[in-house]
Amino acid sequence: MTTVTNKSFFLSSFYRVKANDLVLFSILLLGIVGTAMAHQKRVGGMTGVKSFQDADAGISAEDRTQIEGFLKKVRGEAEEAAGRKFASLKPLEYATQLVNGINYFIKASTGDGKYVFLRLYKPFQGEITFNKLQDDKTEADHLTYF
C-alpha cells in the first residue's frame, strides 16, 4: 500500500513539474512571437509601408540608395512587363516581406503621371531579381501585397 502511495505521489509531482515547464515555455514563446511582431520581422508578414516623401518614415539614406539601385537594375524588365518605356522610375513607397530572402514591394512613379507597383526578390545570398509588376496604378492607390 505504501508503494502505491509513493508511486502516486511521484507521478503527480512529475506531472506538476511538466505542467509548470509547459506554462513557462508558453510564456517564453509568446514573448518571442510578440517581440517579432512588434518589430515586424515575422516570416511571411509584410512590414508597414514606408513613404519616401515622409521625413518621419524612418527610411535611412542607405535604404533609399538601395531601393533606387534595385529599381535601376530591374528597370528594363519592368518596362518589358508593362509594355512601355518609363520616362523615369522613382520610388515613392516600399514595404518588405521576410521569406527565404526578402520580397520588396515598391510603388514607383514612371514620370508620365502614371504609377506602377513592383515586387522584387533578393535572396539572402544573391542579387535582386524582378518578380512581378502591376501597371495602371494611381497616386492614391495604396501599396499592398500582390
From TrEMBL:
UniProt entry keywords in alphabetical sequence: Cytoplasm, Protease inhibitor, Thiol protease inhibitor
Pfam families from the UniProt entry: Cystatin
Locations listed in the record: Cytoplasm
Main location: cytoplasm
Taxonomy, superkingdom: Eukaryota
Boundaries of every Cystatin domain copy: 63-127
Cellular compartments per GO CC: cytoplasm
The keyword Cytoplasm appears for this protein: yes
GO molecular function: cysteine-type endopeptidase inhibitor activity
Family classification: Belongs to the cystatin family.
Official protein name in the record: Cystatin domain-containing protein
Origin species: Strongylocentrotus purpuratus
